[in-house]
Amino acid sequence: MAKDSHPGLSLREREREYARGMATPEQRLIELGLVLPAAAAPVAAYIPTRRVGNLLYVSGQIPLRDGKLIATGRVPGAVSLELARECARQCALNGLAAARAAMGSLDRVVQVVRVGCFVACEDGFGEQPKVANAASEVLVEVFGEAGRHARAAVGTNALPLNVPVEVEFLFEVDGSSEPRR
């Protein structure tokens, strides 16, 4: 039997740490040079996150960067596939910011459970998974294997504020304390 070099961590936590090369999600952000924005305030009558037991639901995130929309319009006419992928990546960073604001640290995320990616697109566009992959890739970069998740990539004719992409998240989180209020 191998010697336990991390006696204070659960087996799941040790496996997560090992899979990420011992870096925590917060450390991975630094290693990757990713800076999370301040969590965005809701733009309508909803809350940004809701914790239910060990699950943290993060409301749909839109591609805001520095308080401005990265793009508006539908893919691929008004917004290229590459720009839509950039939007999805920013949505993922915004979702991580919302999770951090709710939990105090991304190190409290056990795993990413599910991601829903909505793409405003023109009729005949079928590349929604390529757009969604950009958000999924961020999560795997930050959480390693714990970032792999179930996902829906859905095309729609319109999204709020005419954005091309919106992404929602479901995280399993450490249940050691109640969420901040």
Textual characterization of the structure:
This protein has helices at 11-19, 25-32, 81-103, 128-143; strands at residues 49-52, 55-61, 64-65, 68-69, 109-120, 150-156, 165-173. Helices cover 31% and strands 24% of the residues. The protein is an alpha+beta fold. It is built from four helices and seven strands. The longest helix is centred in the middle third of the chain and has 23 residues, at 81-103. Strands 1-2-7-5-6 form a five-stranded mixed β-sheet. Strands 3-4 form a two-stranded antiparallel sheet. It has a single domain (11-173), classed as 60s Ribosomal Protein L30, Chain: A, CATH 3.30.1330.
Please supply descriptive tags for the structure shown above:
alpha+beta, 60s Ribosomal Protein L30, Chain: A, 181 residues, two-stranded antiparallel sheet, disordered N terminus, five-stranded mixed β-sheet
Task: Tell me the layout of helices and strands.
Layout: H1 11-19, H2 25-32, E1 49-52, E2 55-61, E3 64-65, E4 68-69, H3 81-103, E5 109-120, H4 128-143, E6 150-156, E7 165-173
Parallel strand pairs: 5-6
Antiparallel strand pairs: 1-2, 2-7, 3-4, 5-7
Helix pairs in contact: 3-4
